[in-house]
Amino acid sequence: MFGLGTTEMVIILVLVLIIFGAGKLPQVGGALGKGLREFKSGVTGAEKSSENSNSES
């Protein structure tokens, strides 16, 4: 996964905890997940609409 080892992941997690705090972490995670879901559905929707326009031509 992007060439990140266990040590790097732990360092990133600690930095995120310091920056956002433990109380805000669930909100940040939820917002990140929601954003990724919307991005994925947008990309999938764009692919489907381009396939439909190609088949109509």
> In angstroms, what separates the terminal alpha carbons?
40 Å
**Number of continuous helical runs:** 1
Question: What average pLDDT do the residues reach?
Answer: 83
Order of helices and strands: H
Number of strands: 0
Structural class: mainly alpha
Low-confidence stretches: none
Helix content: over 70%
List keywords for this structure.
57 residues
Description of the molecule:
There is one protein chain. The chain has 57 residues and is mainly alpha-helical. Helix content is 89%, strand content 0%. It contains one helix and no strands. The longest helix is centred in the middle third of the chain and has 51 residues. The chain is elongated and about 55 Å long. It starts with 5 loop residues before the first helix and ends with a helix. The mean pLDDT is 83.
Task: Summarize the topology.
Layout (H helix, E strand, L loop, with lengths): L5 H51 L1
Structure at a glance:
By secondary structure, this protein is mostly helical. Helices cover 89% and strands 0% of the residues. The model has no long low-confidence stretch (mean pLDDT 83).
